[in-house]
């Protein structure tokens, strides 16, 4: 089974396409029609055209290449549709319908039936019980969700157990000006689950970070091993710290398991975890847009002491360390700004000034620092040190994060300039500190993973229980 036909198809068939607005068959066709490739509406009861393409009665009658079927039909009709897809050589399908494994014994039997058909014809199944997926760079909008066409391209792949949460993350990424390389709602994970998605997006040149929304899984070990083997950074949001077991199982058939055991498993396999959707996207921005840090040591440069104190406290609580700067760096900072408010870590300049960028450079070049975090309230007369930040992270081989606040209209050009030079930026001290903390945890977890038997779990550990509890 390959996921290329799912996420990079030559053509698409929308089975159950409808000319009635509001129906899934209409909304899915409306979104899919944006694809720069053939899109065929399939419905034996319909005639004429829909979005410029003529209806056909079956996928077996399509005269052209089709890799992907979007199944907009009720659950009981799905096995027959998949049989026809197999006969037509279609290698991937999205199943939107619910009423499968999450809905009791009859639903479980129906899901088993579609998996059997998929196995026979080697079909990759996304879902059932999913809102689909989007790949903005390809204008591939295989979802019935309103607004899917507005999600911009970015470099973070969102892999969510819940299609609803996946869309929440995609819309948040749009609002933050970041976008996604893909947004995938796994649903019931009939035969495409976390591991398969991680493996695919790890090999995707448009993806620099992968974020996971996890309710639970019946193959925890495979999930964690896929995370560990991924060269692309993976960050996870495991929900269910309180008792949501019955609700979660009725949602995507998820077995939530013990939250602490999952967290231990992710930690042992080098995956930082977060507790909010914003944190997930912030961590992905920091990891995806930056060099991989060598360690957890964060150097902070702030133009205001109050936010700097918040950042300093938050970084340490988030898993980072604030090392003392070398004497050479402190002397260098003193030479740049004689009588500076505070020349150690964090460096506090008191307010923005023309030399601010030189101070940031000095801290970034300190051998004791693995991650740099800069905070500067915007002052129009000074602006941001864009020239010094441009290429700095690549030159020193360290992440350089920037946090700021001010009047939105006044900040717009400067924020765009930060985007243009590839510097991740954040709107609050807390979010910036948490992102730096995620970088620190990622570096530390990866180091721990390298020095403990190549990452192999030891029998009897919490992490071992985490990946076997649901198997």
Summarize the model shown.
The protein is of the alpha/beta class.
What is this structure's SSE topology?
Layout: H1 4-7, E1 12-15, H2 24-32, E2 39-42, E3 49-50, E4 53-54, E5 68-71, H3 78-87, E6 92-95, H4 105-121, E7 124-126, E8 132-135, E9 140-143, E10 153-160, H5 163-175, E11 180-185, H6 194-202, E12 209-214, H7 220-229, E13 234-238, H8 245-252, H9 259-268, H10 277-288, E14 298-302, H11 305-317, H12 327-336, E15 347-348, H13 356-364, E16 371-375, H14 386-389, H15 392-396, E17 400-403, H16 408-420, E18 425-426, H17 429-451, H18 462-468
Parallel strand pairs: 1-2, 1-5, 5-6, 6-7, 10-11, 10-12, 12-13, 14-15, 14-16, 16-17, 17-18
Antiparallel strand pairs: 3-4, 8-9, 8-11
Helix pairs in contact: 3-4, 6-7, 7-18, 9-18, 10-17, 11-17, 12-13
Describe what this molecule looks like in 3D.
It holds the Pfam family Succ_CoA_lig. Residues 6-100 form the CoA-binding domain. It catalyses: acetate + ATP + CoA = acetyl-CoA + ADP + phosphate. The protein has 471 residues and is α/β, with parallel strands linked by helices. The protein has 3 domains: 1-130, 3-Layer(aba) Sandwich (Rossmann fold); 151-288, Succinyl-CoA synthetase domains (Rossmann fold, 3-Layer(aba) Sandwich); 291-449, Succinyl-CoA synthetase domains (Rossmann fold), CATH 3.40.50.261. It has 18 helices and 18 strands. It has helices spanning 4-7, 24-32, 78-87, 105-121, 163-175, 194-202, 220-229, 245-252, 259-268, 277-288, 305-317, 327-336, 356-364, 386-389, 392-396, 408-420, 429-451, 462-468; strands at 12-15, 39-42, 49-50, 53-54, 68-71, 92-95, 124-126, 132-135, 140-143, 153-160, 180-185, 209-214, 234-238, 298-302, 347-348, 371-375, 400-403, 425-426. The strands form 4 sheets. It has a 6-stranded mixed beta sheet with strand order 9-8-11-10-12-13, with helices on both faces. Helix 7 crosses helix 18, helix 9 (259-268) packs across helix 18 (462-468) and helix 10 (277-288) packs across helix 17 (429-451). The model is unreliable at 243-256 and 455-464 (pLDDT under 50).
């Amino acid at each position: 089974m390959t996921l290329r036909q799912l996420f990079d198809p030559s053509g698409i068939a929308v089975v159950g396409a409808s000319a009635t607005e509001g129906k899934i068959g209409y909304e899915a066709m409306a979104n899919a029609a944006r694809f720069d490739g053939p899109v065929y509406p399939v419905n034996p009861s319909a005639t004429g055209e829909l979005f410029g393409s003529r209806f056909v009665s079956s996928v077996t009658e399509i005269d052209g290449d089709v890799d992907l079927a979007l199944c907009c039909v009720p659950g009981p009709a799905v096995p027959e549709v998949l049989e026809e897809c197999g006969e037509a050589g279609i290698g991937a399908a999205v199943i939107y319908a619910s009423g499968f494994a999450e809905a009791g014994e009859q639903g479980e039997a129906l899901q088993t039936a579609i998996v059997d058909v998929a196995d026979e014809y080697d079909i990759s199944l996304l879902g059932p019980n999913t809102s689909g997926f989007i790949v903005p760079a390809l204008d591939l909008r295989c979802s019935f969700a309103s607004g899917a066409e507005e999600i911009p391209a970015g470099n973070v792949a969102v892999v969510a157990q819940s299609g609803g949460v996946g869309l929440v993350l995609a819309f948040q990424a749009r609002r933050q000006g970041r976008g996604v390389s893909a947004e995938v709602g796994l649903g019931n994970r009939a035969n495409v689950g976390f591991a398969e998605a991680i493996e695919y997006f790890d090999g995707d040149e448009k993806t620099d970070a992968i974020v996971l929304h996890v309710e639970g899984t019946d193959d925890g070990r495979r999930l964690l091993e896929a995370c560990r083997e991924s060269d692309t950074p993976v960050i996870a949001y495991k929900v269910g710290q309180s008792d949501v077991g019955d609700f979660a199982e009725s949602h995507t058939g998820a077995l939530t398991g013990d939250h602490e055991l999952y967290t231990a498993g992710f930690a042992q396999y080098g995956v930082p975890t977060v507790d909010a959707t914003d944190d997930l996207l912030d961590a992905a921005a920091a990891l995806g847009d930056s060099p991989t840090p060598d360690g957890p040591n964060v150097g902070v440069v702030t133009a205001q002491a109050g936010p700097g104190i918040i950042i300093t406290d938050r970084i340490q609580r988030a898993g980072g360390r604030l090392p003392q700067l070398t004497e050479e760096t402190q002397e260098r900072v003193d030479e740049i700004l004689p009588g500076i408010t505070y020349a150690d870590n964090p460096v506090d300049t008191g307010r923005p000034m023309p030399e601010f960028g030189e101070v940031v450079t000095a801290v970034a070049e300190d051998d004791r620092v693995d991650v740099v975090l800069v905070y500067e309230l915007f002052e129009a007369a000074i602006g941001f040190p864009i020239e010094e930040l441009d290429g700095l992270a690549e030159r020193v081989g360290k992440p350089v994060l920037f946090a700021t606040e001010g009047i939105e209209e006044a900040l717009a050009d400067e924020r765009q300039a930060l985007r243009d030079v590839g510097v991740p930026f954040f709107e609050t001290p807390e979010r910036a500190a948490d992102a730096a903390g995620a970088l620190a945890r990622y570096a530390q977890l990866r180091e721990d993973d390298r020095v403990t038997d190549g990452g192999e779990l030891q029998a009897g550990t919490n992490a071992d229980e985490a990946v076997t509890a649901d198997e």
